[in-house]
Structure formats: structure tokens, C-alpha cells
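Journal club side-thread
Mid-discussion, someone asked how the predicted structure for our own chain would compare to the paper's figures. Pasting it here so we can look after the session.
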Amino acid sequence: MIETKGLIKTIGDKMILRGINLSIEKGETVAILGPNGAGKSTVLKILGGLVKASSGEVKIAGLDMKKDSYDSKRKIGFLAHNSFLYDHLTPLENLKFFGKLYGVQDVEERAKKLIDEVGLSFFMHDPVRSFSRGMIQRIAIARAIIHDPEILLFDEPHTGLDQQAIQLLNKVILRMKQEGATIIMVTHDFGQALETCDRFVIIKNGKVVDDLQNIEKNLEAITEKYMEQVASL
């Protein structure tokens, strides 16, 4: 479903990514872990088509990101640090706008269903500018999945959420996973990743240093392995 080969990204004389090779199957949920500055978010932005790699290949569902950028991006839902919402619009207006961009059928019904799923039906007609950071994140989650994407890219999705919102997000992730979506999540929250992800890819200094299966769902073991890899470099 997602494959990268020799992914390199340089900015000026600084090398951010140093030959990232990833292979992620359809339906997998993968957490990308690593210290600050490791290149995690850069990988996600390249996969989402927001940033161009300096060299290397990216394939999304067999499509070359360079040659088939438009078709590739239509398959992707991206949740970044920036919500990409219009703050003068309501949640319903925002979701209808983005849904129409993707050609979503029955867009208003779909938007209302997602607003309810993220627990904000009561605020459906209020402008987003009046929302807290956590509420904005909830609507941004709905925006990312309005077109029912095959691939979800989440950049630290649990940041700024309270416990109820975290549970809602995890419920959405697990539902999308059950429906066959492929999910990549950059996160520092090992506990939430443990609950939702099948694999842990550890990146340090722009390179993949480990790729672990989440078979036992053992937080202590994952944390120990992470610290071992990070400290060894």
C-alpha cells in the first residue's frame, strides 16, 4: 500500500532524512517513534505530498507520488499540527467545504455524522474561532476523514486532547482500521500507540533504526527497546 525507497531530504546543507525505506501493507496501523528532530514529521509530510523529497521513491497504492500526485493525494487523509480549518466557518460549513472538494456524496449527512462521532453536535453551528484547542482538534480529525480515505496520516494526533477526546480519537482510528484503512501515526505517546497500532518504526537521525511488531502489547518492552535504540546512537 505504501512504499518508500531511499528517501532523502536535505534543506540547505542539512540532511533531514538519510535513506528511509518503508513498506506498509494495506490495513496496517503503524506508529513512527523517535526523538525530536529525528525526521518523523518530514516523512509524514512527504507521504502526504506536502513536501517533496530531495531523492528517492514514494509509492501509494502502486502509484508513483511524483507521476500520479493528484490520484495519490485523493487516497489520503492528513491530520497535521495545523488544523487547516477556516475559523470563521462552523464545523458543518468546514466539513461540507472539504467534502465537496473531494466529491463526497450526501456531504451534509456525512458531515453531521462525523461531527456527532467526535462529540461536537451541540457546537455544529458555532464558528470554529470560538473553540478550544481540543475542540479544534476534534473537528480537524473529522476533516481528515470526511472523504473516507484509504490512508490516514496523523502527526501527533493526541496532542491537546482531554481523556474523553483521546478515547473518541482511538475509537475513530480503530473503526477506520477495521474498515481496512492504512494508518501511519507520528507520536510521542507510547501508550496510545500501543492501544491502536500494529507496528512501531523507530527513526533517529533521519534513519530507520528498528521496526517492531506490536504482538504482546507490552508498554514496558516497547519503551525499553526504544530507549535502547535511541541511546545507542
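Post-session note: The CA atoms of residues 84 and 135 lie 14 Å apart.
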